[in-house]
Write a structure and sequence with these properties.
Number of strands: 0
Radius of gyration: 20 Å
Structural class: mainly alpha
Order of helices and strands: HHHHHHHHHHHHHH
Helix content: 55-70%
Distance between the termini: 58 Å
Number of helices: 14
Shape: globular
Strand content: under 5%
Protein backbone atom coordinates (compact mmCIF):
# COMPACT_ATOMS: atom_id res chain seq x y z
CA UNK A 1 0.00 0.00 0.00
CA UNK A 2 1.02 3.59 -0.63
CA UNK A 3 2.60 5.44 2.30
CA UNK A 4 0.69 8.72 2.10
CA UNK A 5 2.94 10.58 4.54
CA UNK A 6 6.17 9.60 2.78
CA UNK A 7 4.64 10.30 -0.62
CA UNK A 8 3.65 13.79 0.51
CA UNK A 9 7.13 14.41 1.91
CA UNK A 10 8.84 13.33 -1.33
CA UNK A 11 6.53 15.54 -3.41
CA UNK A 12 7.48 18.46 -1.18
CA UNK A 13 11.20 17.62 -1.38
CA UNK A 14 10.97 17.38 -5.18
CA UNK A 15 9.24 20.76 -5.35
CA UNK A 16 11.96 22.32 -3.19
CA UNK A 17 14.75 21.00 -5.41
CA UNK A 18 12.91 22.22 -8.50
CA UNK A 19 12.83 25.70 -6.94
CA UNK A 20 16.63 25.71 -6.77
CA UNK A 21 17.09 26.10 -10.53
CA UNK A 22 15.08 29.36 -10.73
CA UNK A 23 16.91 30.36 -7.54
CA UNK A 24 20.22 29.74 -9.29
CA UNK A 25 19.00 31.84 -12.24
CA UNK A 26 18.23 34.76 -9.91
CA UNK A 27 21.55 34.28 -8.08
CA UNK A 28 23.59 34.31 -11.29
CA UNK A 29 21.40 36.97 -12.93
CA UNK A 30 22.02 39.40 -10.08
CA UNK A 31 25.75 38.77 -10.15
CA UNK A 32 25.97 39.25 -13.92
CA UNK A 33 26.10 42.55 -15.75
CA UNK A 34 23.06 44.44 -17.08
CA UNK A 35 23.65 43.35 -20.67
CA UNK A 36 23.64 39.64 -19.84
CA UNK A 37 20.99 39.12 -17.17
CA UNK A 38 18.58 37.29 -19.44
CA UNK A 39 21.34 35.29 -21.11
CA UNK A 40 22.63 33.80 -17.87
CA UNK A 41 19.13 33.23 -16.49
CA UNK A 42 18.01 31.54 -19.69
CA UNK A 43 20.89 29.07 -19.45
CA UNK A 44 19.44 27.86 -16.16
CA UNK A 45 15.83 27.78 -17.32
CA UNK A 46 16.58 26.01 -20.60
CA UNK A 47 18.25 23.26 -18.58
CA UNK A 48 14.83 22.58 -17.04
CA UNK A 49 13.33 21.94 -20.46
CA UNK A 50 16.17 20.02 -22.11
CA UNK A 51 17.05 18.13 -18.93
CA UNK A 52 13.47 16.90 -18.60
CA UNK A 53 13.34 15.70 -22.23
CA UNK A 54 16.64 13.81 -21.86
CA UNK A 55 15.55 12.31 -18.54
CA UNK A 56 12.28 11.11 -20.11
CA UNK A 57 13.96 9.60 -23.16
CA UNK A 58 16.83 7.71 -21.54
CA UNK A 59 18.49 9.67 -18.72
CA UNK A 60 16.58 8.05 -15.87
CA UNK A 61 17.15 4.61 -17.34
CA UNK A 62 20.89 5.11 -17.82
CA UNK A 63 21.21 6.27 -14.22
CA UNK A 64 18.92 3.88 -12.37
CA UNK A 65 18.52 0.65 -14.33
CA UNK A 66 20.81 -2.37 -14.28
CA UNK A 67 23.41 -3.25 -11.67
CA UNK A 68 26.88 -4.70 -11.35
CA UNK A 69 25.97 -7.92 -9.54
CA UNK A 70 23.53 -9.09 -12.21
CA UNK A 71 25.70 -7.83 -15.05
CA UNK A 72 22.82 -5.82 -16.49
CA UNK A 73 24.64 -2.49 -16.66
CA UNK A 74 27.78 -1.53 -18.58
CA UNK A 75 30.75 -2.42 -16.38
CA UNK A 76 29.19 -0.64 -13.41
CA UNK A 77 29.66 2.69 -15.20
CA UNK A 78 26.29 3.32 -16.85
CA UNK A 79 22.89 1.64 -16.78
CA UNK A 80 20.81 0.25 -19.63
CA UNK A 81 17.71 1.28 -21.59
CA UNK A 82 15.20 -0.94 -19.78
CA UNK A 83 13.39 2.10 -18.35
CA UNK A 84 13.77 4.39 -21.36
CA UNK A 85 10.64 6.51 -21.84
CA UNK A 86 9.68 5.23 -18.36
CA UNK A 87 8.88 1.83 -19.85
CA UNK A 88 7.08 -0.45 -17.42
CA UNK A 89 6.49 2.29 -14.83
CA UNK A 90 2.98 3.47 -14.00
CA UNK A 91 1.68 6.03 -11.49
CA UNK A 92 0.92 3.14 -9.11
CA UNK A 93 4.39 1.56 -9.35
CA UNK A 94 6.06 1.87 -5.94
CA UNK A 95 9.71 2.80 -5.58
CA UNK A 96 10.47 -0.20 -3.37
CA UNK A 97 8.83 -2.54 -0.88
CA UNK A 98 10.15 -0.60 2.12
CA UNK A 99 9.89 2.90 0.61
CA UNK A 100 6.30 2.93 -0.51
CA UNK A 101 6.00 6.07 -2.58
CA UNK A 102 5.47 6.09 -6.37
CA UNK A 103 8.53 5.62 -8.54
CA UNK A 104 7.21 8.54 -10.58
CA UNK A 105 8.12 10.81 -7.67
CA UNK A 106 11.65 9.38 -7.49
CA UNK A 107 11.95 10.00 -11.24
CA UNK A 108 10.94 13.63 -10.76
CA UNK A 109 13.13 14.08 -7.68
CA UNK A 110 16.28 12.84 -9.37
CA UNK A 111 15.41 14.75 -12.52
CA UNK A 112 15.69 18.01 -10.58
CA UNK A 113 19.29 17.11 -9.68
CA UNK A 114 20.04 16.39 -13.34
CA UNK A 115 18.60 19.79 -14.29
CA UNK A 116 20.54 21.96 -11.87
CA UNK A 117 23.97 20.30 -12.16
CA UNK A 118 24.96 21.55 -15.64
CA UNK A 119 23.27 24.88 -14.91
CA UNK A 120 25.79 25.41 -12.08
CA UNK A 121 28.61 25.45 -14.63
CA UNK A 122 27.23 28.46 -16.49
CA UNK A 123 28.31 30.97 -13.86
CA UNK A 124 31.94 30.39 -14.82
CA UNK A 125 31.68 31.44 -18.48
CA UNK A 126 29.09 34.21 -18.23
CA UNK A 127 29.13 36.63 -21.20
CA UNK A 128 31.46 34.48 -23.30
CA UNK A 129 29.69 31.37 -24.64
CA UNK A 130 27.13 31.31 -27.44
CA UNK A 131 23.70 29.95 -26.61
CA UNK A 132 23.74 27.42 -29.45
CA UNK A 133 27.02 25.89 -28.31
CA UNK A 134 25.76 25.82 -24.72
CA UNK A 135 22.72 23.78 -25.73
CA UNK A 136 24.95 21.12 -27.27
CA UNK A 137 27.26 21.26 -24.26
CA UNK A 138 24.29 20.82 -21.92
CA UNK A 139 23.10 17.70 -23.75
CA UNK A 140 26.40 15.89 -24.11
CA UNK A 141 27.77 16.84 -20.69
CA UNK A 142 24.73 15.32 -19.00
CA UNK A 143 25.01 12.12 -21.02
CA UNK A 144 28.75 11.57 -20.67
CA UNK A 145 29.53 13.09 -17.26
CA UNK A 146 26.47 13.41 -15.06
CA UNK A 147 24.67 10.16 -15.92
CA UNK A 148 27.69 7.87 -15.43
CA UNK A 149 28.57 9.34 -12.05
CA UNK A 150 24.98 9.12 -10.84
CA UNK A 151 24.89 5.47 -11.82
CA UNK A 152 28.29 4.74 -10.30
CA UNK A 153 27.46 6.44 -6.98
CA UNK A 154 23.66 6.34 -6.53
CA UNK A 155 22.59 3.71 -9.04
CA UNK A 156 24.44 0.81 -7.45
CA UNK A 157 27.35 1.05 -9.88
CA UNK A 158 31.10 0.77 -9.61
CA UNK A 159 31.84 3.36 -6.92
CA UNK A 160 28.88 2.37 -4.75
CA UNK A 161 29.97 -1.27 -4.86
CA UNK A 162 33.49 -0.25 -3.86
CA UNK A 163 32.18 1.59 -0.80
CA UNK A 164 32.06 5.26 -1.85
CA UNK A 165 29.38 7.39 -0.16
CA UNK A 166 27.83 10.67 -1.30
CA UNK A 167 24.64 11.55 0.50
CA UNK A 168 23.23 14.24 -1.78
CA UNK A 169 25.74 15.21 -4.46
CA UNK A 170 29.18 16.34 -3.31
CA UNK A 171 30.77 14.14 -5.97
CA UNK A 172 27.99 13.73 -8.52
CA UNK A 173 26.85 17.36 -8.54
CA UNK A 174 29.26 19.90 -7.06
CA UNK A 175 32.68 18.41 -7.75
CA UNK A 176 31.90 17.46 -11.35
CA UNK A 177 30.20 20.79 -12.11
CA UNK A 178 32.92 22.82 -10.37
CA UNK A 179 35.78 21.27 -12.29
CA UNK A 180 33.85 21.36 -15.54
CA UNK A 181 33.48 25.09 -14.85
CA UNK A 182 37.24 25.43 -14.41
CA UNK A 183 37.83 23.60 -17.69
CA UNK A 184 35.38 25.91 -19.46
CA UNK A 185 37.31 28.93 -18.20
CA UNK A 186 40.54 27.48 -19.57
CA UNK A 187 38.90 26.96 -22.94
CA UNK A 188 36.95 30.19 -23.50
CA UNK A 189 39.47 32.53 -21.91
CA UNK A 190 38.93 35.82 -20.12
CA UNK A 191 36.09 38.29 -20.50
CA UNK A 192 36.64 41.43 -22.53
CA UNK A 193 35.50 43.53 -19.58
CA UNK A 194 34.85 42.48 -16.03
CA UNK A 195 31.87 43.91 -14.18
CA UNK A 196 30.35 44.48 -10.81
CA UNK A 197 27.11 42.71 -9.77
CA UNK A 198 24.14 44.52 -11.31
CA UNK A 199 21.50 43.72 -8.69
CA UNK A 200 22.48 42.55 -5.21
CA UNK A 201 18.85 42.23 -4.00
CA UNK A 202 18.29 39.78 -6.89
CA UNK A 203 21.27 37.78 -5.61
CA UNK A 204 19.64 37.77 -2.18
CA UNK A 205 16.41 36.36 -3.63
CA UNK A 206 18.41 33.67 -5.43
CA UNK A 207 20.32 32.80 -2.27
CA UNK A 208 17.09 32.52 -0.29
CA UNK A 209 15.55 30.19 -2.88
CA UNK A 210 18.70 28.07 -3.03
CA UNK A 211 18.92 27.82 0.77
CA UNK A 212 15.22 26.96 1.02
CA UNK A 213 15.42 24.40 -1.77
CA UNK A 214 18.53 22.81 -0.28
CA UNK A 215 16.42 21.36 2.53
CA UNK A 216 14.72 19.19 -0.09
CA UNK A 217 18.06 18.58 -1.81
CA UNK A 218 19.65 17.10 1.32
CA UNK A 219 16.84 15.91 3.60
CA UNK A 220 14.94 14.40 0.68
CA UNK A 221 17.94 12.30 -0.30
CA UNK A 222 17.21 9.90 2.56
CA UNK A 223 14.03 8.91 0.65
CA UNK A 224 12.35 8.36 3.99
CA UNK A 225 11.14 10.24 7.05
CA UNK A 226 13.29 9.22 9.99
CA UNK A 227 16.05 10.45 12.28
CA UNK A 228 18.51 10.66 9.37
CA UNK A 229 16.11 12.94 7.50
CA UNK A 230 15.80 15.24 10.49
CA UNK A 231 19.57 15.21 11.06
CA UNK A 232 20.38 16.07 7.45
CA UNK A 233 17.77 18.86 7.50
CA UNK A 234 19.30 20.56 10.54
CA UNK A 235 22.88 19.83 9.41
CA UNK A 236 22.13 21.68 6.17
CA UNK A 237 21.09 24.87 7.91
CA UNK A 238 23.82 24.63 10.54
CA UNK A 239 26.67 24.27 8.07
CA UNK A 240 25.32 27.07 5.87
CA UNK A 241 24.96 29.44 8.82
CA UNK A 242 28.39 28.72 10.29
CA UNK A 243 29.95 29.12 6.85
CA UNK A 244 28.15 32.42 6.21
CA UNK A 245 29.27 33.91 9.52
CA UNK A 246 32.83 32.61 9.11
CA UNK A 247 33.11 34.04 5.58
CA UNK A 248 31.80 37.38 6.83
CA UNK A 249 34.34 37.39 9.66
CA UNK A 250 37.23 36.54 7.31
CA UNK A 251 36.19 39.20 4.81
CA UNK A 252 35.79 41.75 7.59
CA UNK A 253 39.40 41.20 8.68
CA UNK A 254 41.11 40.94 5.28
CA UNK A 255 41.32 42.96 2.07
CA UNK A 256 39.06 46.01 2.23
CA UNK A 257 38.11 45.03 5.79
CA UNK A 258 34.42 45.50 5.17
CA UNK A 259 31.62 42.96 5.64
CA UNK A 260 29.68 42.64 2.39
CA UNK A 261 26.25 41.22 1.71
CA UNK A 262 27.58 39.24 -1.25
CA UNK A 263 30.28 37.77 0.99
CA UNK A 264 27.69 36.65 3.51
CA UNK A 265 25.59 35.00 0.80
CA UNK A 266 28.62 33.42 -0.87
CA UNK A 267 29.66 31.89 2.44
CA UNK A 268 26.19 30.42 2.91
CA UNK A 269 26.25 28.78 -0.53
CA UNK A 270 29.75 27.43 0.18
CA UNK A 271 28.46 25.86 3.39
CA UNK A 272 25.48 24.36 1.60
CA UNK A 273 27.63 22.84 -1.15
CA UNK A 274 30.16 21.46 1.34
CA UNK A 275 27.70 19.78 3.70
CA UNK A 276 25.86 18.11 0.82
CA UNK A 277 27.88 14.85 0.62
CA UNK A 278 27.91 14.48 4.41
CA UNK A 279 24.48 15.81 5.45
CA UNK A 280 22.95 12.46 6.40
CA UNK A 281 26.13 10.87 7.73
CA UNK A 282 27.45 13.30 10.37
CA UNK A 283 26.25 14.68 13.69
CA UNK A 284 25.23 18.27 14.34
CA UNK A 285 28.55 19.26 15.92
CA UNK A 286 30.46 17.96 12.93
CA UNK A 287 28.21 19.92 10.58
CA UNK A 288 29.13 23.14 12.39
CA UNK A 289 32.83 22.35 12.03
CA UNK A 290 32.34 21.46 8.36
CA UNK A 291 30.64 24.84 7.84
CA UNK A 292 33.66 26.65 9.27
CA UNK A 293 36.06 24.55 7.19
CA UNK A 294 33.92 25.22 4.10
CA UNK A 295 34.16 28.99 4.49
CA UNK A 296 37.92 28.94 5.08
CA UNK A 297 38.65 26.48 2.27
CA UNK A 298 36.38 28.06 -0.33
CA UNK A 299 37.52 31.59 0.56
CA UNK A 300 41.14 30.55 0.01
CA UNK A 301 40.18 28.85 -3.25
CA UNK A 302 38.54 32.03 -4.54
CA UNK A 303 41.62 34.07 -3.59
CA UNK A 304 43.87 31.51 -5.28
CA UNK A 305 41.75 31.76 -8.44
CA UNK A 306 42.14 35.53 -8.40
CA UNK A 307 45.89 35.23 -7.93
CA UNK A 308 46.16 32.85 -10.88
CA UNK A 309 44.01 35.11 -13.05
CA UNK A 310 41.39 32.46 -13.85
CA UNK A 311 38.25 34.24 -15.05
CA UNK A 312 35.72 32.02 -13.31
CA UNK A 313 33.24 34.89 -13.24
CA UNK A 314 30.93 33.71 -10.45
CA UNK A 315 33.37 31.45 -8.56
CA UNK A 316 31.77 28.14 -9.54
CA UNK A 317 35.05 26.28 -9.09
CA UNK A 318 35.93 27.97 -5.80
CA UNK A 319 32.49 27.46 -4.22
CA UNK A 320 30.96 24.35 -5.79
CA UNK A 321 34.02 22.49 -7.02
CA UNK A 322 36.12 22.99 -3.92
CA UNK A 323 33.05 22.77 -1.69
CA UNK A 324 32.31 19.33 -3.13
CA UNK A 325 35.91 18.23 -2.57
CA UNK A 326 36.12 19.60 0.97
CA UNK A 327 32.78 18.08 1.95
CA UNK A 328 33.68 14.67 0.53
CA UNK A 329 37.02 14.64 2.33
CA UNK A 330 35.35 15.82 5.55
CA UNK A 331 32.98 12.87 5.26
CA UNK A 332 36.00 10.57 5.51
CA UNK A 333 36.85 12.21 8.84
CA UNK A 334 33.44 12.93 10.38
CA UNK A 335 31.20 10.03 9.23
CA UNK A 336 29.37 8.66 12.25
CA UNK A 337 27.68 5.25 12.11
CA UNK A 338 25.52 6.11 15.12
CA UNK A 339 23.85 8.76 12.96
CA UNK A 340 23.55 6.50 9.91
CA UNK A 341 24.37 2.81 10.21
CA UNK A 342 24.77 2.51 6.42
CA UNK A 343 28.22 4.15 6.54
CA UNK A 344 31.40 3.07 8.36
CA UNK A 345 32.88 5.44 10.91
CA UNK A 346 35.18 8.18 9.73
CA UNK A 347 38.71 8.68 11.00
CA UNK A 348 37.63 10.90 13.92
CA UNK A 349 35.10 8.33 15.14
CA UNK A 350 37.26 5.25 15.24
CA UNK A 351 37.40 4.39 11.55
CA UNK A 352 40.44 2.77 10.02
CA UNK A 353 40.89 5.35 7.28
CA UNK A 354 39.53 3.23 4.43
CA UNK A 355 36.47 5.43 4.01
CA UNK A 356 38.68 8.52 3.75
CA UNK A 357 40.90 6.76 1.21
CA UNK A 358 37.95 5.71 -0.95
CA UNK A 359 36.36 9.15 -0.82
CA UNK A 360 39.63 10.76 -1.88
CA UNK A 361 40.10 8.34 -4.77
CA UNK A 362 36.52 8.94 -5.92
CA UNK A 363 36.91 12.71 -5.80
CA UNK A 364 40.17 12.63 -7.78
CA UNK A 365 38.55 10.38 -10.37
CA UNK A 366 35.39 12.52 -10.65
CA UNK A 367 37.13 15.90 -10.87
CA UNK A 368 39.78 14.70 -13.32
CA UNK A 369 37.25 13.09 -15.61
CA UNK A 370 34.88 16.08 -15.50
CA UNK A 371 37.73 18.53 -16.19
CA UNK A 372 39.31 16.72 -19.14
CA UNK A 373 36.05 15.58 -20.72
CA UNK A 374 34.71 19.14 -20.58
CA UNK A 375 37.82 20.45 -22.34
CA UNK A 376 37.44 17.77 -25.00
CA UNK A 377 33.72 18.43 -25.41
CA UNK A 378 34.24 22.17 -25.93
CA UNK A 379 36.97 21.48 -28.48
CA UNK A 380 34.66 19.17 -30.43
CA UNK A 381 31.71 21.58 -30.32
CA UNK A 382 33.98 24.43 -31.41
CA UNK A 383 34.81 22.58 -34.61
CA UNK A 384 31.18 22.88 -35.68
CA UNK A 385 29.84 25.87 -33.73
CA UNK A 386 31.96 28.76 -32.42
CA UNK A 387 31.87 28.50 -28.64
CA UNK A 388 33.23 31.91 -27.70
CA UNK A 389 31.23 34.92 -28.80
CA UNK A 390 32.89 37.82 -30.63
CA UNK A 391 34.22 40.93 -28.91
CA UNK A 392 31.42 42.94 -30.50
CA UNK A 393 28.80 40.57 -29.06
CA UNK A 394 30.41 40.88 -25.65
CA UNK A 395 30.36 44.65 -25.92
CA UNK A 396 26.69 44.82 -26.91
CA UNK A 397 25.66 42.04 -24.53
CA UNK A 398 24.28 38.59 -25.23
CA UNK A 399 20.75 39.54 -24.20
CA UNK A 400 20.41 41.71 -27.27
CA UNK A 401 22.71 39.97 -29.75
CA UNK A 402 21.67 36.36 -29.04
CA UNK A 403 18.12 36.67 -27.72
CA UNK A 404 16.83 39.98 -29.09
CA UNK A 405 15.50 41.23 -25.77
CA UNK A 406 16.68 43.23 -22.78
CA UNK A 407 15.99 42.88 -19.07
CA UNK A 408 15.19 46.56 -18.58
CA UNK A 409 13.73 49.08 -20.98
CA UNK A 410 15.49 52.44 -20.76
Amino acid sequence: MLDVGLTTFMILATSLVMLMTPGLAFFYGGLGCNKNILSIMMQSFVSMGIGTVLWFAFGYSLCFSGNVTSGTDFLGIIGNFDKAFYHGITPSTLYSADKRFPEYIFIAYQMMFAIITPALITGAFINRVSFKSYVFFLIFWQIFVYYPFVHMVWGGGLLAQWGVFDFAGGITVHATAGFAALASVYFVGRRQNKHEPNNIPLVAIGTALLWFGWYGFNAGSELAVNSITISSFLNTDTAASFAAVTWLFIEWNTGKKKPTFIGLMTGAVAGLATITPAAGYVDIYSSAIIGIIAACGCFLAVKYKEKKGWDDALDVWGIHGMGGIIGTICLGFFANSTINSAIPDGLFFGGNGMLLFKECVAIVFATSYAFFFTLLLFRIINKFIPVRVTDMEQELGLDLTHHGEVARQR
